[in-house]
Amino acid sequence: MTRRRATLSWAEPLAVAREISDNASRLLDGARRLQSLPADSMDIATTPKDEVYAEDMVRLYRYRPLVAEPLAGPLLIVYALVGRYQMIDLEPERSFVRKLLELGHDVYMVDWGLPTRAQRWLAIEDYVCGYLDRCVDVIRDRSGSQKLNLLGICQGGVFSLCYAALYPERVRNLVLCVTPIDFHGDKREAQKGAGYVNLWTRALSADDVDRLVDAYGWIPGPMVGLSFMLMNPAGNAAKYSSELPRVVGDERRLLNFLRMERWISDRPNHPGEVTRQWFKDLYQENKLLRGEFVLDGRRVDLRAVSMPVLNVYAKGDLPVPNSCTRGVGPYFGSPDYTELGVPGGHIGTFVGNKAQEILAPSISRWLRKRA
Amino acid sequence: MITSQINGQGGLFEAWNALLQGLMPQGARQTKVPPDDASIASLLSPAEMFQRALRSGEAAVAQALSRTSSEPLSTALERMFSDWGKAVGGLRPWPNAAGVPFSPGVEIAFGGLADALGLGPSRRLAAALQALSVAQAEQQQSWLRLQQLVVSRWPEVAQRTIARVVTPGDGASGPETVSDVLSLWAATADEVGHDALHGESGAQAMADCIRASTAAQAARNEVGEIVCEAMNLPTRRELDEAFLEIQKLKRLARAAPARPAVAPGQQGTGRPAPRKRATRAKPASAKGQR
Question: Is residue B70 within 8 angstroms of chain A, CB to CB?
Answer without folding.
Answer: no
